[in-house]
């Protein structure tokens, strides 16, 4: 076991390559939180019983020191138990709370045993569940130190009882040195109790190791399954990309032949049908281009200082003709916003977003491009007044193949988000107040240059 920078307890689970297995921290934290919550609630039910017994014993006790200790332990225990319950309700689980609670429980238990008869105390056997919980949830070597301290205290109780130097038997149990028989009984009793204590500690550690091994095997099997699935997916994407690439050449031939036929066919139905054929070939080529972009691995970033405000103006100029065809207008609201990025890829994302916005903008509508500094980087927004984001799709629009367009491929937004995240940023869609959609591209101040090259 080890602790992270916050003192939380985590297991050193790694796969066969020595890499940490993802998920084990979350599993451990979830299970510890669930168990700790149950313990916090259970203590509130036993608290009145224990406090009542302690107060009764203090009320009849004649020895001042024992009465003082009992009257001190009761309010401390009540305040601690209730405080932990309130803290858990407000702030949830904190991993360091488990060893802290168990250490205080062990200390308080030994103090109460000392005040209620030492080795003859009816509460002495509570040492066993505390030991097993410590062995299960407290990392080495602290669980060994806790169990060793418990065993040492038990032998100390036996020595005090055998010597009769201190009256361990409280007034409520008749007073005197002790309740049991001859000193030999005490030594046999403490030997058996210590043996059971060690066995319980060993059993607790064995349970913890079994739990860790089970989760480790499950996570390793999951990782292996995901690795095999990823390899298979890469093979299928590569194969699909090859097929798409091979289809582009025949489509180009079909488009060229259709153009040649159009020059020799008189105006009429034949010309219209050839025009439809050429448009459909163009659409198929566009889909194949998007699929090829999706199937290819992302090439490294060509990073350089770029004014994304100027980039927005350039994209708007490229789409003036398309906007005129849709009866719409493109408005750019962006000053100079320098940021380090790959301008070609950012431009590709903006082209996709502007085309999507124009497709849904009604005649007479306006598509707006905004760019502003944000967190040292930049935030670029494309706003439209279309029908808005379909709530049934939500974030699924970034999933390959998901689209609301009758003729869409469902790959444009997937590629756009991949390019944004390659920069260390993101792409998000959200409803626009008053109707429409806001597509926001965020770019960080210093994009990751892993695998990239400086421009």
TrEMBL record:
Query: Known Pfam families for this protein?
Result: HATPase_c (PF02518), HisKA (PF00512)
The record ties this protein, via Gene3D superfamilies, to:
1.10.287.130, Histidine kinase-like ATPase, C-terminal domain
Report if keyword Kinase is assigned: yes
Per UniProt, residues of the Histidine kinase/HSP90-like ATPase domain are 341-447
State if Kinase is listed as a keyword. Answer: yes
Which EC number(s) are documented for this chain?
Answer: 2.7.13.3
Q: Where are the transmembrane segments?
A: 35-56, 68-86, 98-119, 125-145, 152-172, 184-203
Q: Which InterPro entries match?
A: HATPase_C_sf, HATPase_dom, HisK_dim/P_dom, HisK_dim/P_sf, Sensor_HK_Regulatory, Sig_transdc_His_kin-like_C
**Catalytic activity line of the entry:** ATP + protein L-histidine = ADP + protein N-phospho-L-histidine
Class of this enzyme? transferase
Give start and end of each Signal transduction histidine kinase dimerisation/phosphoacceptor domain: 235-300
Record's keyword terms, sorted: Kinase, Membrane, Phosphoprotein, Transferase, Transmembrane, Transmembrane helix, Two-component regulatory system
Cross-referenced SUPFAM superfamilies: ATPase domain of HSP90 chaperone/DNA topoisomerase II/histidine kinase, Homodimeric domain of signal transducing histidine kinase
Query: What's the name of the protein?
Result: histidine kinase
Q: What is the lineage of its organism?
A: Bacteria, Pseudomonadati, Myxococcota, Myxococcia, Myxococcales
